[in-house]
What does this fold into?
Amino acid sequence: MTSPLRATHADRRVRLPFRRWLDGDPSLAEITDDVARPLNAWPGRGWFMCFAAAFTALTVGAGCVSYEVATGIGVWGLNKTVGWAFDITNFVFWIGIGHAGTLISAILLLFRQRWRTSINRSAEAMTIFAVLCAALFPLIHMGRPWLAFFVIPYPNSRGPLWVNFRSPLLWDVFAINTYLTISLVFWYVGMIPDFATLRDRSGAGIKKTLYGIASLGWNGSLRTWSRYETLSTVLAALATPLVISVHSIVSMDFAVSILPGWHTTLFPPYFVAGAVYSGFGMVLTLLILTRSLMHLETYITIRHLEAMAKVTLLTGSIVGFSYATEFFTAWLNGTLYEQATFYYRATGPYAWCFWTMVACNAVAPQVLWLRRVRTSVAALFVLSILVNIGMWLERFVIIVTSLHRSYLPSTWVMYRPTIIEVGTLVGSFGLFFTCFLLFIRLLPMIAIWEIKADAGVEAHGELAGIDVPGDLARV
Amino acid sequence: MSTELKFWKSVDELRTHSAEQAGAGRDCFAGQRATTGPPPAASRRDFLTLAGFSLAAAAMSACSRGRVQKAIPFLNKPEELTPGVPNWYASTCGGCSAGCSLLVKTRDGRPIKVEGNDESPLFGGGTCAVGQATVLSLYDDERLKRPLWRGSSASWEDVDQRIETHLAEAISARKRVVLLSRTILGPTTRHLIREWMARPGFEHVTYDPVSFTALREATRTSFGVDGLPHYRFARARTIVAIEADFLGTWLSPVEFTRDYAAGRRPENTTGMSRHIQFESGVSLTGSNADTRIAIAPSERALVALALYSRIARKHGMAGLPDVPEGFIDPRPLDAAADDLWRTRGESLVVCGADDVATQVIVHATNALLGGIGTTVDLDRPSLQRQGDDVAVARLIDDMERGSVDTLIVYGVNPAYDYPQSDRFIAAMRNVPLTVSCADRLDETAAQAHAVCPDHHFLEAWGDAEPVASFFSLAQPTIAPLFDTRAAQDSLLKWLGRAPDFYEYLRGYWRETLYPRQSRYATFDEFWDHSLHDGVCALPAGPAAERRFAGDVSAAAASIVRDHERSAGERHADRFEVHLYETVGQRDGAHANNPWLHELPDPVSKVTWGNYAAIAPAVASRLGISSGDVVALDAGTRRIEVPVHVQPGQSPRAISIAMGYGRRRAGRVGQGVGANAYPLVQVVAGMRRYAGTSVTVARTGRLEPLAATQTHHSMEGRTIVEQTTFAAWLAASSAGHGEHEPQEVPSLWAGRPAGAHAWGMAIDLNTCTGCSACVTACQAENNVPVVGRDEVRRGREMHWIRIDRYYTGSEDDPETLVQPMMCQHCNNAPCEPVCPVLATVHSSDGLNQQVYNRCIGTRYCENNCPYKVRRFNWFEYARNSRFDFNMNSALGSMTLNPDVAVRSRGVMEKCSLCVQRIQAGKLAAERDGRPVADGDIETACQQVCPAEAIVFGDLSDPNSRVSTLVRSQRRYRVLEELGTRPNVSYLTKVRNA
Amino acid sequence: MGSSPASTSLEISPVCSECLVATYAEPEALLAAVRTLRAHGFKIYDVYTPCPVHGLDEAMGLHRSRLPWVTLAAGVLGLISAISFQFYAAVFDWSLNVGGKPDNSTLAFVPITFEITVLAAGLATAAAFLLRSGLFPGAPARLAGPRVTDDEFAVALRWRSSVFETGEARRLLHDSGAIDIRQAVMEL
It folds into this structure.
């Protein structure tokens, strides 16, 4: 969206009190310098330590996956009754993480939440990487990934041989791929002007060439800008229903089945809320780390964190409410099997997972009612970690406790993960953080042009009213 | 594969005789000999055999991936052998001492499946799990491939020459030559042995690992009959069994199951038989009883005595005065006595006790009940288990004393299964020449000077007479795979006769049996028909008047004496051991058969190994739980086994299965479980399988049992429906609980009906849970064996399983069983969730799994409410991690060429034997007729001795399955889900 | 002086031409300059900014972009093709009994239809944008000034000899607070 820009070096001080989303008062050139600095400077020790850790995890995961693919799914702890466990848990977890990115970049854009500008770029990057991690699991959980192309309805010489459009798994295939593609486009389009900026401030050399190619010959022409903003709005408008559809469809992997504990119409909204919740947890974790790591406190302010904390509080409460609803409906519908499933979910051998999940997702976020907590970086960081743990457990509880004790007691078993499964999970985190750490070194992790465009917007009295984080309720 | 193969011996005879044997002869194949060796004399035949083998190989490679083997097409096709079309040969099972009649299915020259011979008046078409697995033992890589002399392989000529010279010296020196054999069922072999014993100094001792000497002795003293009574359960309306697992392992389980099931159908006009079981461990039979009373082994005699005393009083005789009472609750005893008396003439008491006195009392009871001649047939006694404990004990003494010059061991393995095996092994060393005819280098053969490997029974000629005047023939279904020789041929050779048992067999039948029949004019006619049918029943001798002549008071006195003695040493922390055979392992002879190890015990559902079954109360008192390894100390002998907490177990008894802990059985079998034979007591030569007093001590080790079912309660769900006979008489739909059979309304119009609607009905009343169907399905459908660790991880691959639930109290539960396989739902939850349409519905009602389309998402497994789908977690075939039958070329010979071997990452499940359905449809089409009811039998249905499983076309209102489905007892599992299964169950009805 | 009447539309000539480029440090100055210039009938070739500036579109009298029509068309196309393909495959080409469900399980086809619609619309719009704006990998960046993608704002005037001779343009630009005015040959 456009916004008049009045940031003149002369009368800056006058407008200081209105600068509510930037700390300090950088000039346009300073903004460019600040964001571009990490791309030119040699990374510091902190970055290297993080990268080493992430890359090690990635290697471990790669090892586990190759072993599994070479030997068979049997190296996991699955059995005749529990057909999914860590694999699909990780899948849903990562897909959920992705959602915060789209929410910030698209939905908050439509709602004109200016505070998004500092974080939307990295949030979108997080989306891409999370979806990549997620897409990995359906592939490897088949054991024979080279057959994955079977799910594509391609014309073939075997006579009519199509796929099953009734299967939620096939819906997944389309949803995930669409989501990944649209997110990538959105992300890249958003970076074109910044690439141009970087191109023009770097001296001749490989960097200039690369940025030149990536910037597609952008020259800041007004006509392009005007179309460009239309495009952003269109993409945002498309991505908003998309992000909701994706997790609804993921939830249908379970809701469409006949398994007590899976078969419920509550799942789509419940899963979307959970996704946003876990996503914001991950954004908090990442930004709290990077803002200090990359010295971007000016742009990612405590107020940004507080705004995100409010979204976390909201979605967390929705999730907690969903937990209660599940039990209520189980009690209400009076089905023996349904009731047994939820009875054992809360008291059975996996009860500890369930109660940890409740503590992390339903109880913990309630502390965010306190402003002191919302504005304490340390508290938020701890909380964001809890959110990640809780949301991973939520998927594990839904999948495993429903499966391991279903209709026929003769088939009841226990599921125990193997070291290979744990290694694969670790590996997915490794992949995620490796990508993210490379991203913050190689690409502008803050949308330069949007910061510039927004830098002066609060000067407008008529706009100032919009920007109180309280508006988040409208998100 | 064998390195050198013998060619068919009796080519000439084969030329001259009927198609059956000719087929049997020509179905043999000579593998590498034919390819590498010099061209043999009969080159056409040799070429055909080679072709047969190549086709077999081709058929196997068709089941495998990536391995290309050349198939050499027939030049001249033999008339009997059409590639892809099975040939059937009648034979006799060698799996145990029951000698069931079989039909052997051979494909392209190799036996791939055995089935019961439904022309047999005794056994019908059923078999047991062991019988089903025998075909795999044929292709056992651990079998000896050639004779051994002092541990190193030798030629037959060499070994024969040494043995013959030694025997010659023995005869001249009047030394003792002893043949130690298992019970010989074959009349011809018995005749051969009589000839053998005619030689001066030649003796024969019969040894049964699990001995019935007590019953045999009692029968002799009571009735003067040499043999065991032939029990006729079909005629019994009240059955009281004291520690006799007659449905699982006792004498002739297949025959007994068939007869028992016949009397258990509530629709019978005579009503349903009543079955009361007194036993210490929970046996398959006990789990089926209407009333089951847990007793300590030492109380078996008292139960028999108490029953006798009650019956006697009812009979007007003076009951036994000094019978101890109050050792258990007298009410069930009274009830049992009342029932027995009410149905006298149609009552039967059987007892598995191992002391003569008890068996005498039981005989007396049956006599009082007028069972002699009706339920207890002594005119055609059973000729099984003729072993003589005392003779065996004496033999061992003699061997120790060195008074035995030559010992020939045939078909037994005392170095493993004799209680004092160490004594036996030591004694063998004092024998100048020991010869074993074992098929493998087992514990005994390893100690013998010479090993002359016997054929597998599917490679040999033979006959059997399990019940007097009932004969069954056995013919070769494949040429000997290895350089082995029938034990009978060896004996003939060593007697200086022509080593040609086939001719000998015909000779015996010509001289002895042919005259006893009047149906056929010529012997060849008689022989050909007998060989074709496989069975022939000859008229028994004149029915003699059998009256009980045993000494009851003496028997009673000795029982009371024993009781008082044992009462003295009774103690809280001492337990009575109860040794039993399992349905899968029996006496341990098949220890190297992976199918039988993977077969879950019908009651405990434990696979791969034995355990000490302990009552829940005792377990909690001692702080032991399942999987804890305990040491059972019987003073001189001590074994360590994991514990299995068994509801219904007698608190005073610890049950342990024999037949495990083989040291020399082969890769698969050795070291599985612990050998319990040492706990058998030898009292005055007689072997006692129960009563050994032991203490229990924890070792601290943990050895989780590989059980296929770990949760045992139905959780208040109506899964196995049960009602009482009285309730069923009142309302034949009783037991359906809250859900009456119903069609859940559907949102959609049904799909157009196909030509057929295949369906199945399973009568839970006649199904005993014997699990023969599990192994039959494994054999028919190439179901892989996964081994102990994978079973522990809950990954057994069986397409059909027997769910077992306990109801009632932990100490005295009621057991319910339910065969569970793919229910072929019309609204199958597994189908819509598959992204690639790898599982869809056929027009005739089958839920199909398309292996080469499956990508392994496992959603179908998750969404199946019956959890009958099985995933190939690994590559189970040709994978050294799963070194069972499918890992060797030889073991793979059992694979059914009509069924694909599934590869890694593929979902599989019961197909209702679609290959049999297709074959049936083809046959009908060829004959230009519609498929008739009964044309198509699934493997599980065919094997079931109780005929509890019926498969057929539901769209044909007159088919058997349709009539069963119309029954008021019919219900479908979880039908309230609206899955509309094609498999129905009939409510279990028990006498209250 | 005789100035041509202000025209609200801009015609862009594809050929290279000589331009008068003025750069500003402040967007307001730029905005003012644009207004004055157009009031004086100057044809502004284009404006170059590091970020969108509010009001410029109106000042330049730009039409609203027609991209949304592309979005609509592509979306409808995607929707129709997705639903019809699923219907064809499941009902006509390969009708199977899948769990007793009807061949035409339309509701089950909705999710995929929706995803394809969004995918088509999104990709088409992005492609149309790049095409229309002549953006493609390796396209030369024609810059009005070295810092227009950083912190400077530039306006480019097409050469009009009759006007420039008077130097009126220079004066207006100078008065509007341009920090630099130069003649440049821009390949625009």
